[in-house]
Amino acid sequence: MGNRGGELGHFGDARRAAMGSTLIERVMETGSLVIRKLGRGRAGEIAIHRFLSAPSVTCGEMNDTLAARTAAACKGRRIVAAQDTTEINFAGREERRRGLGPAGDGVSAGFFIHPVIAIDSETEAVLGLLDTKIWTRTDEFVAASARERTMEDKESIRWLEGAVRVGERLTDATSVAVVADRESDIYASFARRPTSVDLIVRAAQDRALHDGTRLFAAAADWPELARSEVHVAPTRTGVRGRVAMVALRAGTVVICRPRHGNDLDAPPHLTLTMVEAREVDAPSGSPPLLWRLLTTLDVTNADGAAEIVRLYRLRWRIEEIFRSLKSDGMRLEETQMHDARRLFKLALVGLAAATRTVQLVDARDGSPRPATDVIDAALMPAAEAIAPTLEGKTVRQQNPHPRQSLAWLSWIVARLGGWNCYYKPPGPKTMRAGWAQFASMAAGFVLATQSNV
């Protein structure tokens, strides 16, 4: 669709910038990371391989370009930055793979992706990628005792690095809370976090407290502040989502530095808040929900405790993106790309496309965000031209959203994907199909406009 400044980066050349823009659009169109499908022919396949093989095309520049766009969307807003790690495992598909070390099982070839995504705290909508770390282990990787390694020598440094990047990139946000699951419960992450960033982490360690007691027992003596409903997201194991009624408790805890930690510069104690959400009357056959959330935010009442639980629950937005990237969507683990360096670049392109698909699905019910959160401003005239052709005569058949908003664009894409506005809201599959149509029509519009100039 032409060079529009490079949606993934400039990479030192206008043609490579245009190729990057085309590639992310093709991934969104097809919902695939298979080069044969993306290339639309042998010449296209060669062009994509050449792009991914170019030394000037780096994950670093892609990361910075995507993050800059997201940071602009976060300006003046309260932001939740969710971070998590997913594994790409090529078990049974390792033949001819080059440059990949062992995955989490220690045997199969694979690599790891650790993104940080920005979420609007008020609307709970995904705003984009803030940072992504992609790595593979060496064949000589040995899981040495954690006591023998510094924080910088551990893979867990990614949790601190993610928070640091967020602090650097979201200087114009009103507030920032980084949320993460139990793997991020690391003393050094709390001790060394940027002062501009707050943390909300689900506790994994029953830590020693300064008064000689233990963390997990602390809430037993706290009064119940309120009872609140929590929407529990479905899991990958097939367990359906449900609504849990939880009792909320909150209080101040002073945790001790681990006795065997190597981060000797960390303070001996840290004062944090813990919010406990414990399910009451859990349904038969379901383990009761129990979240112990450590946070650097102050909580003084029931509303504050409920807000911490709500913000932590937004972490599940990153799981939606992982599903879109992997088995439920683009099936990254089935790609035939063999070389690790090119594979990492393709993975980042897929992650960016998956994030934008989720943004479009988010906007289907209305979003005040501008359409330029997803498309380049140069494509707005094409969207303006396409929009009236999709509307009918009745009120129900009209695009109800403000022009040039993300919700307005989502409505256009959904209609192009075959959505009937009288029925249920469109899902990711409809959005991907609609994006294919939109990209094709927009490309034709741009070419026709350029020919008339």
Short description:
With 453 residues, this protein is of the alpha+beta class. It has helices at 14-30, 35-39, 42-53, 59-74, 157-169, 187-191, 302-313, 316-325, 340-362, 380-386, 406-416, 428-452; strands spanning 78-83, 86-89, 110-120, 126-135, 175-180, 198-202, 226-232, 242-256, 269-279, 290-295.
Distance between the termini: 17 Å
Number of strands: 10
Q: State the share of residues found in helices, binned by percent.
A: 25-40%
- Estimate the strand proportion: 15-25%
Q: Can you summarize the main beta sheet?
A: 10 strands, mixed
Under CATH, the homologous superfamily of the largest domain reads Transposase Inhibitor Protein From Tn5, Chain A, domain 1
Mean pLDDT comes to: 88
Q: Regarding CATH, which class of the largest domain?
A: Alpha Beta
- Runs with pLDDT <50, length 5+? none
Principal-axis shape: globular
CATH architect. name of the largest domain? Alpha-Beta Complex
Number of separate structural domains: 2
Report the order of strands and helices: HHHHEEEEHEHEEEEEHHHHHH
Describe this structure in words.
- The protein is an alpha+beta fold.
- The chain folds into two domains: 69-334, Transposase Inhibitor Protein From Tn5, Chain A, domain 1; 366-453, Orthogonal Bundle (Transferase Inhibitor Protein From Tn5, Chain A, domain2), CATH 1.10.740.
- The chain contains twelve helices and ten strands.
- The chain has helices at residues 14-30, 35-39, 42-53, 59-74, 157-169, 187-191, 302-313, 316-325, 340-362, 380-386, 406-416, 428-452; strands at residues 78-83, 86-89, 110-120, 126-135, 175-180, 198-202, 226-232, 242-256, 269-279, 290-295.
- Strands 1, 2, 3, 4, 5, 6, 7, 8, 9 and 10 form a ten-stranded mixed sheet that branches.
- A hairpin with a 5-residue loop joins β3 and β4 (126-135).
- α1 packs across α9, α1 runs antiparallel to α12 (428-452) and α4 runs parallel beside α9.
- The two termini are 17 Å apart.
- The model has no long low-confidence stretch (mean pLDDT 88).
